[in-house]
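Box 3.1. Reading complex inputs
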Amino acid sequence: MIAKPGLDGHDRGAKVVARALAESGYEIVYIGLHQEPDAIVQAALQEDAEAVGLSILSGAHMTLFPAVLDGLRKNGMSDVLLFGGGIVPRRDIDELKALGTGEIFTPGTDTRKIVAYLDAFFEKKLSALKQN
Amino acid sequence: MVPLHPISGNQTLRTTISGAENKPFYAPSDIANLNVGHDLGAPGQFPYTRGIHESMYRGKLWTMRQFAGFGTAEETNQRFKYLLAQGQTGLSVAFDFPTLMGYDSDHPRSKGEVGRCGVAISSTDDMETLFAGIPLDHVSTSMTINGPAAMLFAFYIAAAERQGVALEQLRGTIQNDILKEYHAQNSWLVGPRPSMRIITDIFKYAAQYTPQWNTISISGYHIREAGSTAGQELAFTLADGLCYVDEGVKAGLQIDDFAPRLSFFFDVHIEFFEEIAKFRAARRIWAREMQKRGAKNPRSLLMRTHAQTAGVSLTAQQPENNIVRTAIEALAAVLGGAQSLHTNSFDEALALPTEKAVQIALRTQQIVAFESGVAAVADPLGGSYYVEALTDRLERECYDYFKRIEDAGGMFAALDAGFFRREIARSSFTYQTEIMNKRRLVVGVNAYETEGGVEPPILYINPKLEAQQTVRLARTRATRDALKVQASLTNLEAICRDENSPGNIMAALVDCARVNVTLGEMADVCRKVYGEFNKLAAV
């Protein structure tokens, strides 16, 4: 699931990534702009999302990523991958990853890199399931 | 062994970044249909292809106008003063997302967003602080604000009154281009129809009280940044502009009473010649279309335009390269004949710009203006086989789109059906795919990449500013006259509700601003009366 949290309107990246992932075989739901963290968590529940991608170019990433992460955990979705992209400085990316988000991709990222990242995540998840 | 980079021109596309074919060279046969008198004229003459002034930059250089805003009004006031001290000649305000969406800084939806992406302005008190020590009768101010444009304009007017400045002396621009918000930029308050009423009320108010104020800046910038081609940017922007003109006339205005106050705003992307041609084509089409609509005042025919270098062309990788990209784009804007220009700072793919980065961006314009020699001659590329052929091609593309919009039932039907959003998304994905397949090279991104690299020092917004701003807002609420606030809001609502009201929404908002009604309170009236608009959010 791909979403634009907060009030930010820049949706070029979100749409391009959603389409690139869809063309690589992922089932993608793009829930669109101006989504509040709670609404994103509820949508992830409803859609049974396995990964949630947030696109933030407004500088509000240090509020919105943790809010969604927290919501996912409180709703029993700790195993759902929260990743994202946007204008996010390296220092903040490190901090967010330490909190438990996945990768945050910055402008200029090759969409194949994002596909490869998700492929690796799901392969790992799958092999862990098999081992259990 | 030294690693070689076996990239040759042969492997990459020969089309422009907008996907148009380029011939190896251009010849007289490529402009055989060009009628110099009819299609070009001289600079300052109809159809203004070659520029809107005869003497162009000899008479008046373009305005160097850096878009700035972050934190609270105090921080941005300091940045404005810095920019003016560095030789900038006009101001341009970037607002944060809560302001752009019509929410006060203390609204729950504003949490984490206050002052992040621009300055937080919730009241006339904030606006007064923003321009403290800057005489509003001596600067021109551009405000990038759309959904709540009327509210922020009202704050500006009320702040000017507090400075003792007469309204007819105010010079500047509100972006106020709601159509491109629905196409691309996504900051809206209410739906298209009520927005058009507010906009035409602004036209009426400004014609009476602020005759030097540009009431709208019809913007292609955001359409392009959302991924459109040059042709789409040109076509959708001009279609929007003509829609505003037609709506103004429908609302009972004389075309020459408001058309001279319309201004434009285009992107300048990295595709050098195509961008120059875009500005030339835009002026020609606008002049002809306005003449067709019966404009008599020559000023109604002139397309005055701001330009900004392409944020989307900046890369987070090897960010110093962005200085070069911006210089190329700035040169294209000047060769295209823009009236004002913002040059992006090299660190903007990482964060809002530092003072140092902004200084380099401004110096880039000053070098183009004073060292390169390009300001000496109007439209120096006029008559170039290539540039004239590009200008014609873009004009044809534009009219093709006009026809498609008409076939889709006109502006509002096409907008409702998501036509513009889908066209832009399609182009955006095509471009991204070309980069991914290395058919198009971006230095540092998919060619000549380097590992690691040190991130330059970037601007961090102090998270404490949000709390300071909410305290400031609480003080404003606590010290105003509650009865006057209520009365002005009641009046605003009554005028909004009655489609045939003789009252003017803009005038009612100015009354609200004078007594420190906040942005969110005014916007809530509009949301209550007209309903919230979410229709295009996931298209």
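In summary: The longest helix of chain B spans residues 385-407.
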